[in-house]
Amino acid sequence: MSTSVESxxxxxxxxxxxxxxxxxxxxxxxxxxxxxxPVLLEGxxxxxxxxxxxxxxxxxxxxxxxTIDVKLMKPQALxxxxxxxxxxxxxxxxxxxxxxxxxxxxxxxxxGQSYTIQLKQLSRGAHIIVGTxxxxxxxxxxxxxxxxxxxxxxxxxxxxxxxMGFIDDVEWILERTPEKHQTALFSATMPExxxxxxxKYLVEPREIKIKSATATVAAIRQVYxxxxxxxxxxxxTRILEVEExxxxxxxxxxxxxxxxxxxxxxxxxxxxxxxxxxxxxxxxRERVIEQLKSGALDIVIATDxxxxxxxxxRVSHVVNYDIPYDTEAYVHRxxxxxxxxxxxxxxxxxxxxxxxMLRTIERxxxxxxxxxxxxxxxxxTNKRVSDFKAxxxxxxxxxxxxxxxxxxxxxxxxxxxxxxxxxxALAMMAQEAKPLQIVGEDPRPAPAPSFERDSxxxxxxxxxxxxxxxxxxxxxxxxxxxxxxxxxxPRREERPARSAPTGDMVRYRIDVGRDHGAQVxxxxxxxxxxxxxxxxxxxxxxxxxxxxxxxxxxxMPAEAANALKRTRVRGxxxxxxxxxxxxxxxxxxxxxxxxxxxxxxxxR
Length: 604
Ligand code: AMP
Hints:
Helices cover 38% and strands 14% of the residues. It is of the alpha/beta class. It has 4 domains: 8-209, Rossmann fold (3-Layer(aba) Sandwich), CATH 3.40.50.300; 220-376, P-loop containing nucleotide triphosphate hydrolases (Rossmann fold, 3-Layer(aba) Sandwich), CATH 3.40.50; 378-430, no CATH class; 472-578, RRM (RNA recognition motif) domain (Alpha-Beta Plaits, 2-Layer Sandwich), CATH 3.30.70.
């Protein structure tokens, strides 16, 4: 790991939070946490260059929580995120860290959610608000959100907010926050506009960057599986079952709790597995490693720290069940296989939102990591059958078969059947504990991963064809445009891949156009985020001088339509309404919408 800090206790966090971290199974701080937490606790402004998967949420959330006065039921921290998914996720993380802080309240607010509910929640009060820029701006304007008691402001994934066209909204909000507060800005990259915002609104910020030191990795076969359509546990057991040269594995997870949970689940599925984490004393740890060496265990589920230095030559596989925080951890983890001149295999599970981390690892290790196609049911069945045949052939060569052959003859005679049928019945009995055939459906393969296919809507990065409904696909797929509300919306990683939309499109007009500085990406971004319409369901956009048109799926619920009426682009309410011709007449020269759309789409 890239930091020498071994313990959260060294970072200056309170006893209450330390207790919580132990309870939720965090063993050691990630590198970004080790560096950011002390700086934020000292009250400095901060620029953190880190992406999803590095543990950045806890890096800002933990120090921020130390500043909260639970008795004061007023917003004391505001966290801006580019998407509703991230807002919910961050709010959930905060709530879990507040486990031992009775009365603590965090509120996510984002577009697409009912105002009535939000107003009720806001009037009840919250200590921390996590929101998307458009909706936060709205509540500030309506004076339903008051930031007078604000102590901390966090801009999470600032470059994403820029990409989605929210940076003006972010600045609008920053302009209206009280003078004295701490600001932390997190961004995976640092484009010029983000630097400018940082220079304007942050005071002598400390800059923290997670270095991704390049390192060469030994000749290890490296593959990744993009998590989709199936639980990680099911995918893991499928993969392990068909891997040709499987002997033993170390599986890496993030928390102590996860080591124990996964070990239990694998035991229940018949694997000889055990957890290896920092809660075990030295003697117990050595025992687990000895058992792995001797073959009494085949799988060890470990955290980074606990697995440090393990040297067990029979480890044929390392599985990164949870993606590591940085490239150094990755290199260290996969170095546990391919030892003593043997071949090694490293398998990495990557959630859609962690694709960027995958690319960082590939760059830093200068080795491509190939996508892994999940074995199908047929693959698993074939493997089980061939293992079964191998076992039978072994027994056929064993001594003492005569006694059993005699029994088979007797059964055949008594039942008046052939020996083959008796053998079939015995084979059926023999596989009862672990059936040769697996039932259930194969998941649909994940879409080809790329930055554009990350978990959030990426407005500008869809080309025109992808955003238009494809009539040829209309009737053979059951895909419907979604106007999802929070309660119904599963996390994207858990949702199966979706295809092109069905149904008709309706053209709407909005009150922002080229003269307001609006670009196609701003419009797509605002609609995607505020109404919860995935960007692929947004049709053609025509940019005019003072207004624009946008095609949206027919049958939009009133709530989404209302949300869109108040949605802003470039600070202007768009006032979405069905398009009834060209109200701005001939004077409003069409801005070559289609061509500019295409060009702009590829410009990023
Ligand atoms: P993030 O990069 O903030 O999205 O965090 C990614 C995941 O890592 C989340 O599931 C966190 O709960 C988990 N995580 C963050 N910090 C730690 C830590 N120090 N120990 C174990 N898990 C962590």
